[in-house]
Amino acid sequence: MVYRIIAYLVSAFVACLTVLYLRQRSLQQQVEQLRACVDRLADSSGHPEYRTDYICEILRNELALLKQSGQDVEAVKRLREQTGWSLLEAKRYIDRL
Q: Among 32, 52, 73, 88, which one has the highest count of C-beta atoms within 10 angstroms of its own C-beta?
């Protein structure tokens, strides 16, 4: 009897996790679509500074100096602090500098 209750609770927990994962994934896709829309609007309006991936010249220069001096990790940290980007997004940006 106890094992049935535990099995039921585990299966209910797994079902809840699955639903939450699917909802999170759906929301993440919506955010990506909205980012793409904002970027298209910024491009079509002639205001690249409104793009979601815009980095101001001062920060870009600071990041380039950090990278040139071999402080790639510090550059990634700084970029993440300023933009809220993920580790992967920031690393890719620094690698492209």
A: 52
Measured at the alpha carbon of residue 78, what is the angle toward residues 72 and 79, in degrees to the nearest 5? Answer: 90
Helix axes 87-96, 57-68, angle to 10 degrees: 80
Structure confidence by residue, pLDDT tens digits, 27-74: 999 999 999 999 999 999 999 889 988 899 999 999 999 999 999 999
User: Which token pair is 85?
Assistant: 């980007």
Alpha-carbon distances of 47 from 50, 78, 84, rounded to whole Å: 6, 24, 21
d(Cα 39, Cα 83) in Å, to the nearest integer?
15
Which two three-digit tokens encode residue 4?
A: 């049935």
The pTM score is 0.63
